[in-house]
Amino acid sequence: MSTIISAQMVNDLRIATGAGLLDCKKALTEANGNVEEATTILRKKGAASAAKKADRATKEGLVESYIHVGGKVGVLLEVNCETDFVARNDDFKAFCRDICLQIAAANPLYVTRDQVPETELAKEREIAAAQVQGKPPAAVQKIVEGKLDKFYSTIVLLDQPFVKVPEKTVKEKLTELITKIGENIQIRRFTRYQLGA
Fold first, then answer.
1. What's the CA gap between 8 and 123, in Å, rounded?
2. CATH 1.10.8.10 matches 7-53
3. Which residues, including other chains, have CB under 8 Å from residue 175's CB and lie 6 or more apart?
4. What are the φ/ψ torsions at residue 4 (nearest 5 degrees)?
């Protein structure tokens, strides 16, 4: 027996995920009315959709700025998209503002993991391995990798919990925006200024 998918269920899922109405209806049908499962289906589809768009050129976008109250912290951020039409989109602009706030609050050092210098990673691996001496080698490797993931979430912007929705990462919020807008979007670079730092 299949569950009847009401228009209200579809609309609630659309509001919660930002996905299109038809995609929400298909996901709810596939999940037999289970909202959590439908959300997971949409997130997987969004990640696959974002991966397909990753190779597209991003030559438009915005340079956004933020100065914290009191003028002690400031952020300059460049976010790129494919067209100037998207650069003027309210969702895109709101995302750029939110990322500026994220950078001001969480103080990341890099945008992506591949920007972290190998010397810094080697040092972190060494520290993590020293903390778990005496354990079996396979366990040590898993613990070190877990500690590295935690390390990344403090210094890499895309790996950080999103300040407005901590249960999601910045990368997941970016993927949601790419899925919603339908264009490749990249956080290109940022500079964070702090008085006296």
1. 53
2. yes
3. 43, 46, 47, 50
4. -80, 125
Q: Measuring CA to CA, how many Å separate 120 from each of 116, 140, 167?
A: 7, 19, 27
Residue 61: beta bridge partners? 80
Mutual angle of helices 7-17 and 35-53, in 10-degree steps:
50
pLDDT tens digit sequence for 78-134: 999 988 898 999 999 999 999 999 999 999 999 999 999 999 988 988 888 888 777
Q: Where are the alpha helices (DSSP H) in the chain?
A: 7-17, 21-30, 35-53, 84-87, 90-106, 118-131, 137-155, 170-181
pLDDT for 8 equals 82
pLDDT of 155-186, one tens digit each? 999 999 999 999 999 999 998 888 888 888 99
- CATH architecture, domain 60-112+156-194: 2-Layer Sandwich (3.30)
Beta bridge partners of 192: 75
